[in-house]
Amino acid sequence: MGLITLNSNQVIHRSGDKVESLEIVVKGSVSVSANGQSITIGTGGILGVAEKPGAEYIFTYSANEDSSIFSYTFTDISDIYKVVKCNPKIAPILAAQSVKTVVLSLDKYNDDYETIQSEYDRLDTDRASYPMMAVSVGMDIETFPELDDIEPPVKEYALSEWQEKYFRSLNSKEDLMKKACYCCSSDIANGFIMNAVEALSFISACRDKLWEYKRGFQKETGKFYQTMQLAKAKSDDLKRNGSDDGVLSIDIHNALNTILQYADTDEEVTENFKKAVTEFKNSPVRNDTTDESRLLRRNVAKDFYSIYTAVFLRSLKDPHVPSEIMMFLMFGFVDENLAGLENTRQLYALMKTYTPDPEGRVVTIYEWLKKIYSMELEPSRNEFDEDYFTALRTLKTNGEISEEQMEFMKLNPLERLKFEIKNLFALGNRMTFGRPTTFVPVFDAENVIRPLESAYITTQRINDFYESIKTIDFSLFCRQTIYSNPEIGITQAFVDEDIMPYTILMPNMGSRASLWQEIEGKRRTTPARFIISIFNTETLEDVMIRLCGEFRWEMCKTMQGVHWNDVTDPSLTSMFCDYLQFYKKNHSLSTDMKEKLRGDLKRYSNNFKNVFIADYISYIKFESNSSPRLNKVSREILFTYCPFSREYREKLVDSPIYSELIKKHSARTGSLARPLSNMIRKVRNEGNEVPTELLDQFDYLQK
User: Fold this and answer.
1) Helices 572-581 and 632-641, interaxial angle, to 10°?
2) Least crowded by CB within 10 Å, which of 78, 198, 412, 481?
3) Residues 441, 403: contact at Cβ < 8 Å?
4) Would you list the DSSP string of 491-502?
5) Domains of the chain: which residue ranges?
6) Does residue 332 surpass a pLDDT of 90?
7) What order of strands is seen across the sheet that includes strand 30-34?
8) Of all residues in the chain, what percent carry a pLDDT higher than 70?
9) For residue 132, how many other CB atoms are within 10 A of its CB?
């Protein structure tokens, strides 16, 4: 033991060696590392304080540069006290460095957690991109069911909030502490050091759990990533060779000509569109806000939907639609140079590996237009909120069409298709893009601000989100209807039916999702229609929760009709409007809450719906996870009309802010369940089979 001189990169202790000594860094710096991660200990730092005497070293210690250390025997934790006691002159430095080591260790632990969390988050993206990658190199697509059972990492909090702030504050005031506190006595310095040693041991234990999770994660994902790496290696090799001999042999040339030839439409329209796309592609400023650029984008959009309509109609009769055509129909792809080679290849692979939604509820715009053209569904409302038949009557009233023309157009598939393309497609495409002033309907590489594979919205991702949010807001898509069956003595029973919306994937890379309409026509039990970019640049969860909040508000307005803001007829919208309109007189709100609400109203331009949506997002993301964000009044309204599912209510039942609300909810559902239970019992006693609708409603009231 004694002074030891070290060369740069010289190892002092290796992980797995026996712990027998403590060292003080007297010159230079030392790296403390494990699992490829490290922190640096400078002059005055004590090496080994996070280790257990007689056990094996957890970390590896090595010199970052030419350094010197002083070594002491380490057989018991009390030896740390002795080391400081015999070095009173440098005790302040030792204390300061111990505190700094705690802060560095906390930062590294937080970084490690974020790294592991990002690896877990990336798994979904990699799983989504794998089929495309496999197809691109001609490999068979394998399944990896073991990936379905992987849980996200759990962050253990090594120190309490006050402890972490305590050490960070000490570290930020290092110079002052060394001059005014640590130097007062070696015992004081020792107290800070021993406190730091205890904190380091907690951090080390949490870190071990985190890395244990990572080892398990790597084991479970090993086979998948080996397979994916092989596919990637083959893909890279093909790219290096400058050719693709696998399925992705898509060195597409003259896609625009192919699309225009396939459309086989009016010659003038064809030439104008070709000229507009060519000028747009060759412009170096095509996406700025100058008049010249706006004109270029308008010229492209002018004939895009005419070309799309012609291509769509021909594709319905073609059993072998060319790849360029399907890419155009699904993604708005028109030119390989405008899209870029890599994007073109990815679009091709995404088109080839696209899996339709088995339920037909999440669809591309191409699939949606086929439903409209086949008259499976009615066209969507127009920009004036008129449905197809109302719009026709308006045209007739204005003298633009005759009675005969109106009757013909009602059942004409082509007229229905044109109405849908003019309204939902053209307007919705611009709306979901999110930047109306720079919108262009064709796929442009300059709009790709996020990798396609991570921005791509699959049918599975949408359905997974719906399943996830319904575990929280279980009544989100429920509509109340009346069931009757006089044959078994049921004249009237109110039942709630789960009606999932249609979600239409618009062919652009945008940032928004929007509620196009909450019901079809006048029928209140028809699915809503949501639209979202097929390549979304935002976090899908955030975009979709906002969309669900908008749906909640608009659906309530539709169901309530003219009484949507009439507080004498209590509903979600009427109660929320009353709360926002008279918040200044509400004695349940503190002065701070009222001031915050005033700021929210100003931020959202006094738009009550937008204030509600913001509260709904907080309600779903934070309140459901026991992290309060709302005031008492807003919370009560949301819980009354958008109650949490049983699973979440059970988690919150002991929470002071939710316990009373949950009791009221239980009493309310109990009062609804009792007569229903009596009705079911009566039907059984009379020897009749209980209708599924009643059993489902009883189960619904237990959710």
Assistant:
1) 170
2) 78
3) no
4) EEEEEEEE-PPE
5) 1-76, 92-247, 255-452
6) yes
7) 11-13, 60-63, 30-34, 37-41
8) 96
9) 25
